Amino acid sequence: DGGGAWHRGASIAAPRQAMIYTSVFLGFLAASEALNVGVAVPRATAVAASKISMQVAAEAQVAQPVALAKAADEARGLAIDAISKAHSGHMGLPLGCAEVGAVLFGQELSYNPDDTHWLNRDRFILSAGHGSMFLYSWLHMAGYDLPKEEVANFRAKDSKTPGHPEFGWTPGVESTTGPLGQGVGNGVGMAAAAKHAAATLNTADHTIIDHHVVVLCGDGCLQEGVANEAIAFAGHEKLDNLILMYDSNGVTLDKMAEHTQSEDVNMRFQAQGWEVLEVDGHDMDAITKAYRYAKESDNGKPTLIVCKTIIGKGIDEIAGTCAAHGEAGVKYQDSSRVSLGLPEEKFYVSPETYSFFAEHKKELVGKYDEWQATFGDWKKANKDKAKQLEDALAGNTPDVLSMMPEFEVGSKVATRNAGATVIQPIAQSMPFYLSGSADLHGSNKNYLKGVGDFSKTNYAGRNFYYGIREHAMGAILNGIGFYGLHRASGSTFLVFSGYMMGSVRVAALSHLPITYIWTHDSIGVGEDGPTHQPVEVVAGLRCMPNLDVMRPGDAEETAAAYAHSIARKTGPTALILSRQDLPVIDTCTAAEKRAGTLKGGYVAKKEEGELEGIILAVGSELSMGIEAAAQLGKGYRVVSMPCVELFEAQDAAYHEAVLPKAMKSKTTAVEAGVTSAWYKYADKVLGVDSFGLSAPGDQVFEAKGMTTAHLVKLIKA
Fold first, then answer.
1. What does the pLDDT read at residue 5?
2. Which pLDDT score, from 0 to 100, does residue 59 have?
3. Given strand 548-550, what is the order of strands in its sheet?
4. How far is the CA of 450 from the CAs of 442, 460, 477, in angstroms?
5. What are the pLDDT digits (tens) for 122-131?
6. Contact partners, residue 441, CB within 8 Å, separation at least 6
7. Which residue has the higher pLDDT, 107 or 37?
């Protein structure tokens, strides 16, 4: 069984590691038979490990088991009542993990309900976001600003208890979850952010960052590829401040989990550098022991605690079945409440439970006050660091655009190379700016000079190496963003942005100021061929709400695009950059190009006579538009539109000044991508509505008709 697999992993480890595994096993087993392991332990190993096991067993006990057990059943009642009232939701996890919640919120987590932004709080992420009533029940009972009326309005319009947890909406919710596996990646990102913060801010005299990140996930999360990518990163980088609680109930929505998975999850985690413990998820003493071991071990390994649970526990008619996943238990609301010992009053929480959490809150606030005293001493002793921290937490950013050099007019610079230049003053002026790449630093050109590489040997480094794990990179970036201290960017080829789109969508939905640096933006990639030429991707990205997509046309526009990604605080920004060199255009000044880019669109070349036509040129095709206008005559205007979203945000007067409505029939748009969206602004569009081909970039442009000659011909037609 799973426990046997856990012990087998220990038996083949190095002797010292085997001793540690076995000591934990013995300590847990002696106290509560919590570990579901039915194999013999070698006597010599057991004797050698006895002191460690006794220490673990003695130190880890549930302080008030009766109170916590009562709270667990009342949390079950809140979930049953809320989901029954809504006739919608997922009962399985809230009922099956009630004891896990009791241990975490009633005893182990460090938090202050009155200060949800406390820097050193433990972060709890419900990766299995469909079980949101688990989180809402415990936040309510723990004293967060989530009154019972909001719990009772579960899934109602504008309630603080939406169907899936939403960051920034409900007090105590640390990340937006629901798409399975994303929360695991978010937890890894938060753990990495905490490691960087600790390495940067802690001193020999004062420790202000030493919290943990706790994620609760299920089988669905761990089946998603994004979770496995993130797990591999966490194990490799030895993020031992991360604890993953795995609700292992053997059930998925369609079928029992055994119908779709047969791998040994425990061994998979061990192979990726994790500590793995397995407990009865309804035994609070066992959960406590495992959690405290994970928290206190600091052994260079993140910890997976496999909690063997019964999905839907508390409703006998559905417990342990696929039906328990959703709202099938609604019909048993009254009978289940009776079996749980709850009174007729719906949404009942006893005075004893409220009293217990009120007392627990006093203990938590006492520890919080102690930390505040340490923090005050730290600020006095480290004024420069304190100012950097204050600015980072407040979201204060410097005027990075003024720090960026201007580029020589007429020179040719790939916008990815321009990015390599302008990102450096950002890195130097913002000590909590992090960047990284999915194994493509050399191509994406986003390496931060002089700030070191983030790794298990240097958590103060600021260049992240994600490996070939784009989706995990996206989820980890979100976790860094949710953490609330850093500004983060990550890079890959634009064509591979699809691998991370689930995470990008969450970032946009959650208003996270993440920056995506996506290079090799068109058929200009050339010889790599159609697999690497993203003709359709930019248009798709522009369809996503709250994602600013910036495709600059030269180096000066690139500088402004990077500056915008830093100034923006309400959502992510995608920087779409070229592989090939592009001329630094000379039809307007650097200042005009930068200012125009920050408005999304502007007149890059003014007509010199009566306005006869407009060329709307985008990205690498800006220079093509300017060349065409020169051939067509003095009456042609060229409009550059590096960011549609920013342009759309301008007022009607600005729109009319740049793109007069009366001129739409005489406006031609040009971009080396699919054409459909541009017909909003132009009656004619030159673009690429088919996949590319493998050849040098200039030959691909010629083959697809993306030339100045073809543009002039289309305009004249």
1. 31
2. 60
3. 463-465, 433-437, 487-493, 515-519, 573-577, 548-550
4. 16, 12, 21
5. 999 999 999 9
6. 447, 463, 465, 491
7. 107
User: CA 602 to CA 394: how far, in whole Å?
Assistant: 32
Residues annotated as catalytic are: 470
Q: Radius of gyration (Cα) for the chain, nearest Å?
A: 28
571 close to 401: Cβ distance less than 8 angstroms: no
Q: How far is CA 656 from CA 475, 638, 661, 662, 694, in A?
A: 40, 14, 7, 9, 41
Q: Which two tokens stand for residue 128?
A: 């299995």
Residue 44, pLDDT > 80, answer no
Give 511-537 pLDDT, tens digit per residue. 999 999 999 999 999 999 999 999 999
CA distances from residue 573 to 21, 517, 646 in whole angstroms, order as listed: 45, 9, 11
Residue 55: how many other CB atoms lie within 10 Å:
12
Quickly tell me which residue has 């980072």 as its tokens. 392
Using alpha carbons, select from 439, 484, 414, 430 the residue that is nearest to residue 193: 484
Question: Which helix (H) or strand (E) covers residue 670, if one does?
Answer: strand 667-670
Asked whether 146 and 140 are in contact (CB, 8 A), the reply is yes
Q: If DSSP codes are grouped into helix, strand and coil, which group holds residue 549?
A: strand
Triad 560, 565, 567: Cα angle to 5°: 90
One-letter amino acid for residue 18 of the chain: A
Measure the CA–CA gap between 499 and 224, rounded to whole angstroms: 13
Tell me, rounded to whole angstroms, the distance of Cα 493 from its chain centroid.
19
Question: In which element (H, E) is residue 459 found?
Answer: none
pLDDT of residue 455: 98
Say how many C-beta atoms besides its own lie within 10 A of residue 78's C-beta. Answer: 27
Question: What are the backbone dihedrals phi and psi of residue 227, each rounded to the nearest 5 degrees, phi first?
Answer: -65, -45
Which helix (H) or strand (E) segment is 685 a member of?
strand 684-686
Q: Does the pLDDT of residue 6 top 80, yes or no?
A: no
Report the chain's terminal Cα–Cα distance, integer Å.
74
Nearest to 127 by CA among 178, 166, 93, 191: 178
**Integer angstrom CA distances of residue 150 from 101, 145, 155, 160:** 19, 10, 10, 6
- Rounded Cα–Cα distance for residues 176 and 319 (Å): 28
pLDDT for res 224: 95
DSSP string of 567-633?
A: H--SS-EEEEE-SSEEE---SS-HHHHHHHHTTS-EEEE--SSS--EEEEE-GGGHHHHHHHHHHH-
In this structure, are residues 329 and 336 in contact, taking their beta carbons and an 8 Å threshold?
A: yes
